[in-house]
Predict the structure of Molybdopterin molybdenumtransferase.
Amino acid sequence: MSSTTWSVDDHLEDILAAIRPLDPIELQLPDAQGCVLVEDVTVPVALPPFDNSSMDGYAVRVADVAGATEEFPSVLTVIGDVAAGSGGLPTVGPGQAARIMTGAPLPPGAQAVVPVEWTDGGTGGGAAHTMRPAGEDPEGASGEVRVHRPVEERAHVRARGSDVQAGDLALAAGTVLGPPQIGLLAAIGRGTVRVRPRPRVVVLSTGSELVQPGEELTEGTIYDSNSFALAAAARDAGAISYRVGAVTDDAETLRATIEDQLIRADLLVTTGGVSVGAYDVVKEALSSVGDEDEPGSGIDFRKLAMQPGKPQGFGSIGPEHTPLLALPGNPVSSYVSFELFVRPAIRALMGLPDVHRPTARAVLKADKAIGSPAGKRQFLRGRYDAEAGSVTPVGGSGSHLIAALAHADCLIVVPESDTSVEPGTEVGVVLLG
């Protein structure tokens, strides 16, 4: 147990120095969502892979429709249909046209596409509004189409490779794969990619007084909210999270539970049992887990110069030296601690370049000055108004006010040196969500 008090920054630096990004693995596209790409991906085939039509209409030679007007249309012979996905294309010769659908390949001989609205649609009547289904010729229609307007070469044609060319860099290493990136990988034919996987985070709450939501509360018990909040926060940070229901205040049980969980954990998070009371079960269970031959292993319990969240533990456990963060049990303390320490650790495991939440400066809107303990960095819940550039505190400073947390979208940061912040002062805020 360290007797010295740690600063928020030193504690975070200590955690991040110990975290190694997870080894890359090859994943199927659906499983790679949210992961960080570890290789440059180049384009194997041009997109689109062939010249294709951007309209429903007729593929024509430019010379055949050069002088076309409503009054004197060009009359062309329709030689066939080209649908999207067509193979075996008809060749368009002089005086001919092929009906073509959007996305269909431009047939040989054709130089441009005339939209169907510029033709009679092959009905012999006025301007058409839509293409008729293939093979459905109305009464009295001939195999001819009247074209009412000329087109320039390549009109309404999407050129091969106009989206990406073969050999282009599609995505650079370090890219986080969101829906559009997954779509691009699929479009260029990549079924799998090499990424850093999403970390598996096991969240464990401790306390004999904790009851699972949906069960009956008896005297002296409360619902276990921390494990739910932190498992959700871990998922939100990009992890795969496993929630272990509350473990009773018994060191042996807790140690056994943690050892059972190591098999599926890249990071362990406990909440509760770390302060200086008689029942600090996490401290009792973990104070002796260090490996004798392994310097720096085991869990170090420390006091931080912050409010809420003074008691914190950090270290590694088990044969794989799995990192473990022990957070305080107060709901708000545990959540604030998660945001400050666990979320950056998860993002570091993922190999993300930026592990921190965005921050801003905002003007404090409050009825009276906010007090803050000397020498401690205080984090208050707040609501941030980006347009006004202001922030309003939500609820009081108590570390148990979980209702206020649910209505906050930022943390207001009061530095160690300030004991009071007047309304109208500019403060730092950490933006959540």
